[in-house]
UniProtKB/TrEMBL annotation:
<feature type="domain" description="Glycosyltransferase 2-like">
    <location>
        <begin position="5"/>
        <end position="145"/>
    </location>
</feature>
<dbReference type="Pfam" id="PF00535">
    <property type="entry name" value="Glycos_transf_2"/>
</dbReference>
<dbReference type="InterPro" id="IPR029044">
    <property type="entry name" value="Nucleotide-diphossugar_trans"/>
</dbReference>
<comment type="similarity">
    <text>Belongs to the glycosyltransferase 2 family.</text>
</comment>
<keyword id="KW-0328">Glycosyltransferase</keyword>
<dbReference type="GO" id="GO:0016757">
    <property type="term" value="F:glycosyltransferase activity"/>
</dbReference>
<keyword id="KW-0808">Transferase</keyword>
<dbReference type="InterPro" id="IPR001173">
    <property type="entry name" value="Glyco_trans_2-like"/>
</dbReference>
<protein>
    <submittedName>
        <fullName>Glycosyl transferase family 2</fullName>
    </submittedName>
</protein>
Length: 284
C-alpha cells in the first residue's frame, strides 16, 4: 500500500533524528515524508536539511506560526501546509509527531490492517513513555480504541469523508467521532509499541490545558457529558484543578457562543455515541 507521512515540527532538535531514523528503517517504506518546519528557533531546520539531502524520501516546507506549543491550531495548520505538497495517489495518510520512535514494522502492520478491513478509517499503535526509573511504560488513554494524535493513520476514503483535520483543540477526538459518524471503524494494535520521547503535555502551557473544556463544547458534548468527561480526566490526572479548568473552559465557550466544530446532526450522533459508551462502561 502507498502512504504519505506529514510531520509538523517545532524545535525538535533533541528528538527529530531518532524519529526520522525510525522512518528510514521501516520494512514498508513511505512514498513521501513531508517535514514541516514550523517556526523552529533551534537546530531543527539543519537536521531537516541533512535528511532531505541524504534521502529523497524527505521533503521540507517552512511555515511560520506561534512559537508556543499550543495544541490544535498550530500543529494542524502546519500539517495542512505539508498536505498541500501531496497528491491523491495514496492508500492511507499519516500524521506523526517529531518526538517518537516507531517499531520497524509499524507501517507494514498498519497497512495489513487497512487491507483486511475496507471499513477501517483510523489506525495506530500504543504510546509508551519513560518513567523516572527509565522504564518504558504504557501511557495510553482509558479508551483503548483511541489512536493518539502523535501516530494517526487515516484511510484515504475516511480522511476525505471527515474533511481532513480540524485546526482546533480536540482535533484528535473529533476526527474519530466524525469517522464513526461516516461509518468508519477505529483500530489500535497493542503490539505496535511507539516510544514517545517527550512526555505528554510537558510542552503545553497553562492556557492550553484550559482549552479542553472549550473543545468539548465545540464538539457539542453538552453540559452533563462534559462534567462526566472532566471528572474522568481529573481522576486520571489526580487533579481537581483540571476538572475546574475544563468546566470553566466549557462555560466560557458557551457564553461566548463559540463556533461548533461539528454540525447539529453530527453533534446528535456524538452525544448518542458518548452516552452509549458511558452506559457500557457502567455495566462493565
Amino acid at each position: 500500500m502507498n502512504y504519505y507521512i506529514v510531520i509538523p515540527i517545532h524545535n525538535e532538535e533533541a528528538f527529530l533524528k531518532s524519529t526520522l531514523d525510525s522512518i528510514l528503517l521501516q520494512t514498508l517504506a513511505a512514498k513521501q515524508v513531508i517535514l514541516v518546519n514550523d517556526n523552529s528557533t533551534d537546530g531543527t531546520e539543519n537536521i531537516i536539511d541533512e535528511y532531505c539531502t541524504t534521502s529523497n524520501l524527505f521533503k521540507k516546507v517552512n511555515t511560520t506560526s506561534s512559537t508556543q506549543h499550543m495544541p490544535g491550531s498550530k500543529v494542524i495548520n502546519a500539517f495542512n501546509k505539508g498536505l498541500e505538497l501531496l497528491d491523491d495517489n495514496y492508500d492511507f495518510i499519516v500524521k506523526l509527531d517529531a518526538d517518537i520512535i516507531l517499531p520497524l514494522n509499524y507501517f507494514d502492520v498498519i497497512s495489513q490492517h487497512f487491507k483486511k478491513n475496507q471499513n477501517l478509517g483510523i489506525c495506530g499503535g500504543f504510546i509508551y513513555e519513560q518513567n523516572n526509573a527509565k522504564e518504558w511504560i504504557l501511557n495510553h488513554p482509558m479508551d483503548k480504541n483511541h489512536v493518539r494524535g502523535a501516530i494517526k493513520a487515516y484511510s484515504k476514503a475516511c480522511f476525505k469523508a471527515i474533511g481532513g483535520l480540524k485546526n482546533a483543540m480536540g482535533w484528535d477526538t473529533v476526527d474519530e467521532l466524525l469517522a464513526q459518524f461516516n461509518g468508519y471503524s477505529l483500530q489500535t494494535d497493542a503490539t505496535l509499541k511507539v516510544k514517545h520521547l517527550r512526555p505528554t503535555g510537558r510542552a503545553y502551557n497553562a492556557k492550553a490545558k484550559r482549552l479542553q473544556g472549550k473543545a468539548m463544547y465545540t464538539m457539542r458534548y453538552g453540559f452533563v457529558i462534559t462534567c462526566i468527561a472532566s471528572m474522568k480526566m481529573a481522576m486520571k490526572n489526580k487533579s481537581v484543578k483540571s476538572f475546574w479548568n475544563n468546566m470553566s473552559g466549557y462555560i466560557q465557550a458557551s457564553r461566548n457562543k463559540t463556533s461548533y466544530l461539528v454540525t447539529e446532526e453530527e453533534g446528535k450522533f456524538i452525544k448518542n455515541l458518548r452516552w452509549t459508551n458511558i452506559k457500557r462502561k457502567i455495566k462493565a
